[in-house]
Amino acid sequence: MTRETSRRSFIGQSAALGTAFWVGGQASLKANTSALQSLSAACVGVGGKGGSDTSHIAEQGVAIAGLCDVDGGTLVKKGREFKDAKQFTDYREMLDSLGDKVDIVTVSTPDHNHAAAAIKAMRMGKHVYCQKPLTWSIREARTMQEVAKETGVVTQMGNQGTSENGLREAVEVIRSGAIGDVKEVHIWSNRPVWPQGIGRPEGSDPVPENLNWDAWIGPAPMRPFKKGVYHGFNWRGWADFGTGALGDMACHTTNMPVMALQLWDPVAVTAVRNPGIFEGETFPASSSLLFEFPERDGLAPCNFHWYDGGDLPEDSIISQLPESFQKRIQQQRDGGRKTSGAVLVGSKGLLFSPDDYGAKYYLLPEDNFKDFAKPEQTLPRIPYNGGGDQRQKWEFVQTCKGEYKTGTMSNFAYAGHLTETILVGNLAIRSKEGSRIEWDAKNLKSTNMPGINKFVHREYRDGWSI
Q1: Which residues in the chain land under pLDDT 70?
Q2: Which in 64, 193, 337, 359 has the greatest CB count within 10 A?
């Protein structure tokens, strides 16, 4: 049996583990002695978050065989860390070139390239770790779920809070009924921390020799290069490339309440305060949204309020938070640093998380929960000590090896559904302020505002289709 044949066989055997969603039970770890457990990876996007994603899977014993980045300077810099890795500026060329030589692909690009890179990799039988939000569009999120299921590969989205014990415990507390029926959720974010509410600049600048601008644009409509405008961190605010404050942070901040309360598939979303997409180019500097969820498996109907860019919940919510946090809110109102937070309003009390990842929580009012006993553990805990990023990479890699039988928690079945739900909010931002979009989640369309459905997906540039 050749190494390539045995590798394919191993991938097929271990892939089924990635589709399991919290089977339960604790992992039984074994020494990594099998040659088939020596996995290799090709990494798409190796600067910024992609740089740490690459290094973190390498820390788990994965050999880095390929590095891809559109920025030649970034590529050379990361190449010093992984001297044996082949270098590419186009992920299509890298995946075609390396083929069966890699088992894992990481995708850490701007949002608009996630689906094209990840779906190509999955269809080649590769396990995929993809940064959040899983996709740029709602339709892409559905397709990612479908392809992951069809191929059976191990998948994980980069919302590392999922791997924190605190988040899993908070989910157990809410599910236990400790705060009663939850009919309101309020989540606010300190994002954006990049330019939004601006139009497209005129003219163009010469494309740097070490930048593959065509590959950076990828599936999106081509536009001229402008120095310091798109390439770099600022792409998040541009509607053709990023998903704004909501897309950037909601896969983190809503993760815990979504998981605990099954907040899937809103029936309607309203842009309560919405300056709209500025000149069709960038998301607004701030916005407030209302998601409506019906009764779900016996859970009470729930309204989820989202705020970004400095917008905050009403004082009736803020006044119930710890005094120390209320002081931070006041400092924000006085022009200070913006805060983030999540409040679940239950019939018996509140659960408040000041942590973007849902890893810390408080039950309020404190006097009502002095004698609170934590519920029985129902979700697995990762048997690995490290930061959230490292814990999530451990969960992913050990599942790829077939050694962690529980499987990845933020697999694409979960992460795709989460991303679908969140991105419906960006449809509301494309509508008029106060417009209530009625949403048919099964068929991915608005039933009362058909004109908005063109933003559920888009046509790709030639050569970049999924």
Answers
A1: 1-37
A2: 64
DSSP state of 453: G
Q: How many domains in the chain?
A: 2
Q: What residue numbers bound the domain in which 15 lies?
A: 3-162+383-415
Q: Please check whether residues 64 and 134 belong to one and the same domain.
A: yes
For 186-203, the three-class secondary structure string (H helix, E strand, C coil) is EEECCCCCCCCCCCCCCC
Cβ atoms of residues 324 and 341 within 8 Å: no
Is 77 within a domain?
A: yes
DSSP assignment of 56-121, as one string?
HHHHTT-EEEEEE-SBHHHHHHHHHHSTTSEEES-HHHHHHHHGGG-SEEEE-S-GGGHHHHHHHH
Q: Are 259 and 171 in contact (CB under 8 A)?
A: yes
- Counting DSSP H helices and E strands in the chain, the numbers are 14, 15
Helix axis angle, 114-123 relative to 138-151, nearest 10°? 10
State the residue for tokens 């905050």.
312
Calpha distance 331→71 (Å, rounded): 39
- Four-point Cα dihedral 69, 75, 79, 84, nearest 10: 40
Q: 211 phi and psi, to 5 degrees?
A: -120, 125
Sequence-ordered list of residues with C-beta below 8 angstroms from that of 44, at least 6 positions apart, any chain = 50, 68, 91, 94, 105, 106, 107, 108, 109, 113, 117
Q: Give the domain CATH number at 88.
A: 3.40.50.720
Local structure of 134: helix, strand or coil: coil
Question: In 3D, which of 191, 265, 213, 277 has the Cα closest to residue 441?
Answer: 265
Q: pLDDT tens across 214-260, in order?
A: 999 999 999 999 999 999 889 999 999 999 999 999 999 999 999 99
Euclidean distance between the first and the last CA atom of the chain, given in angstroms as a whole number: 33
Q: Note whether 146 and 21 are same-domain residues.
A: yes
Q: Which two tokens stand for residue 250?
A: 């909601």
Residue that is written with structure tokens 């919405």 in the block? 274
Both 98 and 233 in one domain: the answer is no
Q: Where are the beta strands (DSSP E) in 100-249?
A: 104-107, 127-131, 155-158, 182-188
Task: Tell me the whole-structure pTM to 2 decimals.
Answer: 0.93
Decide: 156 and 438 in contact? Cβ < 8 Å: no
Distance CA 88, CA 66 (A): 8
How far, in Å, CA of 246 to CA of 119, rounded? 23
Q: Which amino acid is at 463?
A: G
